[in-house]
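Field log, afternoon session.

UNIT: design team B
ACTIVITY: writing a sequence onto a fixed backbone
BACKBONE:
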């Protein structure tokens, strides 16, 4: 365990404003917290521990060893939301301190998110977009990656991370050898875009442990995140532990339930495709913690080490979610 006193100095020198701000906040916290002794012992205050656990995740990226701070809470988007509603939700989220926005090529939300980011006036938001794969006969994987990322960046204005949305080739069935070769070529092209400074870092989405290790084995730029479903009913504990062991941050979608696995592959998972917001246990924990069931689910996901990305187009709900950053903390028994 690194002491709070040592942590700021151990952060790599980096011009990235998120890291610079994190370094300043950690230094200030050390000076302000009376629980930290002058000798630099580990601060045991709840405030300091929560800050260190939730606010900053350092991920080592091979080669250049770039340090990346992934925000602990984000805003999700999907299903072609109305442009103005999506832009307003993004603006409300960023102004409330939610500093990660998730999108994908096929969501139809990128232009609206770009507008919302410009309205917010902030340039320290972590923008995560996802790209998908297809068979080589339909489109060369390298060309497909560059085309999708270029289009996403044009609409969003910036791209901090690009993730492979699925390990599957979505247009047609393919052999595992063909799919593996497409994934490898796609990843190498994404790495070239990192080298060029076109994107900041790379990630995965919906990758199990075996497929994640496949990418890690061939990567020059290792994946820094894996976006998967995370909620109290769909708790992929083994996958999350494997991600942690590999230095891969878990970004959690569908934090309120409605698991897509249970919806389409009911025999594959032991939980139903239902929202957890009406679950009796969730309601009881929320009442005990003095928060809403939605806030309890978000706090639970963060306590488990994930960065949840709930979806909402209602600015008031977005602001209520943002209160989980500071005002909603569950006890160990509640988690």
């Amino acid at each position: 365990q690194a002491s709070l006193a040592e942590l700021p100095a151990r952060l790599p020198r980096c011009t990235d404003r998120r890291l610079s701000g994190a370094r300043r906040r950690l230094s200030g916290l050390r000076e302000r917290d009376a629980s930290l002794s002058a000798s630099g012992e580990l601060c045991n205050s709840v405030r300091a521990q929560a800050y260190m656990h939730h606010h900053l995740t350092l991920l080592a990226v091979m080669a250049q060893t770039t340090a990346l701070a992934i925000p602990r809470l984000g805003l999700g988007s999907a299903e072609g939301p109305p442009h103005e509603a999506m832009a307003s939700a993004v603006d409300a989220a960023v102004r409330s301190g939610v500093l990660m926005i998730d999108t994908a090529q096929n969501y139809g939300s990128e232009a609206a998110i770009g507008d919302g980011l410009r309205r917010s006036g902030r340039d320290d938001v972590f923008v995560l977009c996802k790209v998908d794969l297809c068979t080589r006969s339909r489109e060369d994987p390298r060309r497909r990656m560059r085309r999708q990322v270029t289009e996403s960046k044009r609409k969003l204005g910036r791209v901090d991370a690009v993730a492979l949305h699925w390990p599957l080739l979505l247009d047609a069935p393919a052999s595992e050898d063909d799919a593996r070769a497409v994934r490898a070529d796609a990843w190498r092209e994404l790495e070239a875009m990192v080298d060029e400074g076109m994107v900041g870092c790379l990630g995965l989405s919906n990758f199990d442990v075996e497929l994640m290790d496949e990418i890690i084995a061939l990567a020059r730029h290792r994946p820094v995140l894996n976006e998967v479903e995370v909620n109290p009913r769909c708790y992929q504990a083994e996958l999350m532990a494997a991600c942690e062991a590999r230095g891969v941050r878990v970004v959690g979608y569908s934090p309120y339930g409605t698991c897509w696995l249970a919806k389409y592959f009911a025999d594959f998972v032991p939980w139903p495709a239902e929202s957890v917001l009406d679950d009796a246990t969730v309601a009881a924990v929320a009442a005990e913690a003095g928060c809403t069931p939605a806030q309890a689910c978000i706090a639970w996901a963060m306590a488990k080490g994930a960065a949840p990305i709930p979806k909402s187009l209602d600015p008031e709900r977005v602001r209520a979610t943002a209160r989980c950053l500071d005002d909603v903390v569950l006890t160990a028994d509640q988690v």
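LOG NOTE: DSSP finds 13 helices and seven strands in the chain.
NEXT ACTIVITY: expression trials, pending approval
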